[in-house]
Amino acid sequence: MAKEKFTGVKGMNDMLPQDAPIWQYVQKTCVDVLSSYGYQEIRTPILENTRVFTRGVGEVTDIVEKEMYSFTDSMNGDQLTLRPECTSAVVRAVNEHNLLYGTTQRLWYCGPMFRHERPQRGRYRQFHQLGAEALGMAGPDIDAEIIMMLARMWKALGVGPVKLEMNTLGAQEERQKHREALIAYFEAHKDQLDEDALRRLYTNPLRILDTKNPDMQGLVDAAPKLLDYLGEESRAFLSRLEELVSSAGIEYSINPRLVRGLDYYNHTVFEWITDKLGAQGTICGGGRYDPLVEMLGGRPAPGVGFAMGMERVIELMREVGQVPKASQTDVYVLHHGGESQAKAMLLAETMRDRGIRVVTHPGEASIKSQMKKADASGAEFAVFATEDELAQGTVGIKALRAHEHAPFAEQTLVATAEAADKVAEALAALHR
Ligand code: HAM
């Protein structure tokens, strides 16, 4: 019988061990920044009741109309969906657990999201977002703080210049007026609308502005602008945000065409874009979503947040050569099997007590072949717990990488009891 070959699901990637250091580095770097602004982690399930997203993200969005992995739970008939984004899920959890009762919340999350899109570079069906939501705070100071926090993350990650585009979607009544004007305008030019636009004309005309159809660009460019429908308050909100962002020295442009693909936004929306990743250059998107908490059954409370695409950020770091070299192993312990293996394993334990990352050679092999493994492991030091050395109460330590003035550049014998301390000192010297 022919052996069956198994492959992963299209558009869903394995993260292989050689990629683990960069994934961990990106998450840690961002979380350090988030913590410095008072954000705490929240984890919600990957499955939610479908209503959370149809209500939260909006019925007439690409995500809900054609990208969700939804199914009926065969055990009880529940309608469930693999989360396509996390803002709605976080708000659902915050409401369910009353986390906004008389207080505010600053929350972050990181994990897989699922959208049934056409896979291509930077666009996957399972992808990962690192995001944050600030809930219960109404002012543009919080929007500005989020922008400042993101600018700090890009700097810490070393992704190079990324362009910030901002826009405002105004307040609900203003949007309503603009919407009516848009419908009237597009009705008058119905013959120029494509199928998608015709379908959205009465359900979500704002999204027509987002069209990628080149034949409709002229029409869309001349369409009524929301900016012209904004009242005093919305204008003041945007100008305060601009003022705070500028005074932090962050460059931005206002893009009146930026409407975002999710329906819960009002006032501020923003995206960070790079020109180094081709068509999928948006590494991060977000904005204010004051209606959402109430839409998902909570007492009205404002919210604002963002999510970055981890795959895109990592791809960008690779493009600009910012991949940190991180070895996973500090020390490789070699031995002669038998009694020396037992001692090697105990010595490894004393090193781990000091936080050193140690691999002890598994099984038995010649020292030459163990050395090859030691070298390939990426370890900084080899420790020889071989019979001769152990018999004298010593082990040998040798640096495996060429560093200037590296300790143990030559193989050196040290007392077995002191070996863990010596290695710890040597590692500290390397990392100084
Ligand atoms: P979004 O713009 O749909 O916003 O997604 C945020 C980011 O996730 C995008 O800018 C992109 O980097 C990444 N992303 C989206 N789809 C894919 C995909 N198929 N493959 C790879 N990366 C992708 C949201 O999801 C909102 N929840 C953001 C937010 C949080 N707004 C307020 N709070």
Layout of helices and strands, plus pairs?
Blueprint: H1 20-36, E1 40-41, E2 47-49, H2 50-56, H3 62-67, E3 69-72, E4 79-82, H4 87-96, E5 105-114, E6 126-135, H5 140-157, E7 163-168, H6 172-188, H7 195-200, H8 217-221, H9 232-247, E8 253-254, E9 266-273, E10 282-288, H10 292-295, E11 303-309, H11 310-319, E12 331-335, H12 338-353, E13 358-360, H13 367-376, E14 381-385, H14 387-391, E15 394-399, E16 412-415, H15 419-431
Helix pairs in contact: 1-5, 5-9, 12-15
Task: Explain the overall architecture.
Homodimer. This protein folds into two domains: 17-170 and 230-320, BirA Bifunctional Protein, domain 2 (2-Layer Sandwich), CATH 3.30.930; 331-431, Anticodon-binding domain (Rossmann fold, 3-Layer(aba) Sandwich), CATH 3.40.50.800. Helix content is 37%, strand content 20%. It has 15 helices and 16 strands. Strands 1-5-6-11-10-9-7-8 form an eight-stranded mixed sheet. Helix 1 (20-36) packs antiparallel against helix 5, helix 5 (140-157) packs parallel to helix 9 (232-247) and helix 12 packs across helix 15. The radius of gyration is 28 Å and the shape is elongated. The chain starts with 19 loop residues before the first helix and ends with a helix. 36% of the residues are buried. It binds histidyl-adenosine monophosphate. Histidyl-adenosine monophosphate is lined by residues 85-87, 115, 117, 122-124, 127, 129, 131, 133, 261-262, 282-287, 289, 305-309, 311-312.
